[in-house]
Amino acid sequence: MKILAIEAAAKTAGAAVYCDGVIVAEEAVANGLTHSQTLMPMVEEVLRQAGMDGRELDLLTFTKGPGSFTGLRIGAATVKGLSMGWQKPVLPLSTLEVLAYNLAGHKELIVPVMDARRHQVYTAVYECKDDALCSLFGPDVVPAAALIAFLEQLDRPAVLVGDTRTVTEEAGGTAFDIAPAHLNQLRPAAACALAESLIRQGIQPIPGAKVEIEYLRKPQAEREREARLRAEQS
After folding, report:
1. Per-residue model confidence as pLDDT tens digits over 38-51
2. Which domains does the chain have, with CATH numbers?
3. 13-19 and 22-29 as β-strands: parallel, antiparallel, unpaired?
4. For the stretch 113-126, what's the b/e string if a residue is b when 16 or more beta carbons lie within 10 angstroms of its beta carbon?
């Protein structure tokens, strides 16, 4: 199976090509440039490195959220355009599941975290069973303190991956294992591998036109507008 993965949900923008069990090309940057500047050049570059035309692909995949609202929209628009142009199906992936898949096979609980601001995190709790990630919690957006309390209640070894600072600062004396730096960010290669695993499990891709984003919460501007309306009504 030949898969192109696109990553634009957070600080990292990237693309990777997977072919029959091998990551043949991967590009990823977190250099502060907007994803609209970097994403398509990286798509073109990984296809060039793979010696492949987009029409040879079997599947496109991308992280559908949660994440940066702007980044998610760029990623979704890019994959929709490529899907329509190449007539290829799309398998949208949870950003948190892709982040967790960096540690696929790990014996401890895997806890991906992304900073949602105001002491909140996008998170989930997974355990590995064979080749699959099984969710014990989430994906959801919760206060970091609530995540810590949940993990303490489970009383099982856990490793954090992603934007871990929000949780570790809130944890105080509670110690958690932290994924190493090279596994601690979103990687399009992990998205490729996860997509292939899900296809083998029977998950079906969708047409690009049906791609939707999973924000988990409303954009800040919309939340502020609703707060103003509630204040005016009261």
Report:
1. 999 999 999 999 99
2. 2-95+187-225 (3.30.420.40), 103-183 (3.30.420.40)
3. antiparallel
4. bbbbeeebbbbbbb
